């Protein structure tokens, strides 16, 4: 395999391949980042063209969509009849754009979304989502599995990225919620460390509720027993306490706005999952 990009993530991917004894050629725009990997057994290519031409499988892990375009565009001729796995984070439409470019240049394209940080690569909990060419996925799964659990999400090259970004959306909003709470108690002199020690087990337990929300959403029945209604819990006390503590409610207030729009639309007796419908209705 030839791996283009030796940033924090590319370095971890290369190291996992070398540790597994997989023949690996590496390239990076800025020289000097490959030394430790070469000492461990990787072959260093001095140009992208050299790197691409020695392997049937090329993997890119670069900064963004533009850096992949800049790197592969000039070597499209040597990319022909090879397989490309792009682990660079892009939007779904950018992934589809690469798939179309690949198609035009006789390249088999698989897009990937890495659900791990560099230190996790090759270890427990590391997962990479793939979509695009099923042939590339099937042919190379044993080597892809060296990095983490590999899951294929179908021929639409944008699906892996869509899952990736949707999961990151969930994560960042949860992280933002932690910041909101930490600021609220922080205004009363509580350290963020103390707050984290209380909040971590609580949130871990609360995530068990996702499957319940999911069942309600998939059934489109938001009126089931045992749910707090939107009217009962419109987050008013949380927003007010944030303000009373001198803390901006900017993280929690948009959630309240979704609830209030659903109440105004006549759904006040229904449960929290109902805000899914407000989101699905698009930005007002
Ligand atoms: N690091 C992480 O935790 C996340 C986990 C989830 C997935 N991401 C994505 O992985 C891509 C690479 O991330 P990274 O952490 O390796 O990023 P950096 O350490 O900043 O390295 C960037 C590499 O990209 C090269 N590069 C940048 N611009 C260009 C360009 N125009 N042409 C060629 N190469 C370019 C850069 O080269 P250099 O600066 O050393 O010369 C690095 O090799 C990324 O999509 C994450 O979203 C990581």
Automatic annotation (TrEMBL):
Any GO CC annotation of this UniProt entry: chromatin
Pfam families per the UniProt record, alphabetical: NAD_binding_2 (PF03446), RedAm-like_C (PF21761)
Biological source species: Labilithrix luteola
Protein name, as recorded: Dehydrogenase, putative
Recorded superkingdom: Bacteria
Start and end residues of each NADPH-dependent reductive aminase-like C-terminal domain: 156-280
Keyword Oxidoreductase among record annotations: yes
GO BP annotations listed: transcription elongation-coupled chromatin remodeling
GO molecular function: DNA binding; NADP binding; nucleosome binding; oxidoreductase activity
Transmembrane segments: none
Residue ranges of every copy of the 6-phosphogluconate dehydrogenase NADP-binding domain listed in the record: 2-152
PANTHER family documented for this protein: CYTOKINE-LIKE NUCLEAR FACTOR N-PAC, OXIDOREDUCTASE GLYR1-RELATED
The entry's keywords: Oxidoreductase
């Amino acid at each position: 395999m030839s791996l283009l990009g030796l940033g924090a993530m590319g370095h971890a991917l290369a190291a996992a391949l070398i540790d597994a004894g997989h023949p690996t050629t590496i390239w990076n725009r800025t020289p000097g980042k490959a030394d430790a990997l070469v000492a461990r057994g990787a072959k260093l290519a001095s140009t992208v063209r050299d790197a691409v031409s020695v392997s049937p499988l090329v993997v890119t892990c670069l900064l963004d969509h533009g850096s992949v375009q800049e790197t592969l565009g000039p070597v499209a001729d040597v990319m022909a009849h090879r397989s490309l796995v792009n682990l660079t984070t892009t939007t779904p439409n950018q992934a589809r754009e690469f798939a179309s470019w690949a198609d035009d240049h006789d390249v088999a394209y698989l897009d990937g979304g890495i659900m791990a940080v560099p230190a996790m690569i090759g270890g427990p909990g590391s997962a990479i989502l793939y979509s695009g060419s099923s042939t590339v996925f099937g042919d190379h799964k044993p080597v892809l599995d060296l990095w983490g659990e590999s899951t294929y999400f179908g021929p639409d090259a944008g699906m892996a990225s869509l899952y990736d970004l949707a999961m990151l959306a969930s994560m960042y909003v949860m992280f933002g919620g932690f910041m909101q709470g930490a600021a609220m108690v922080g205004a009363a002199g509580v350290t963020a460390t103390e707050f984290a020690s209380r909040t971590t087990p609580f949130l871990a337990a609360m995530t068990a509720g996702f499957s319940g929300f999911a069942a309600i959403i998939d059934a489109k029945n938001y009126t089931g027993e045992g749910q707090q209604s939107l009217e009962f819990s419109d987050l008013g006390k949380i927003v007010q306490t944030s303000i009373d503590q001198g803390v901006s409610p900017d993280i929690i207030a948009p959630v309240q706005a979704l609830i209030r729009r659903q109440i105004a639309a006549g759904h006040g007796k229904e449960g929290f999952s109902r805000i899914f419908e407000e989101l699905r209705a698009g930005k007002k």
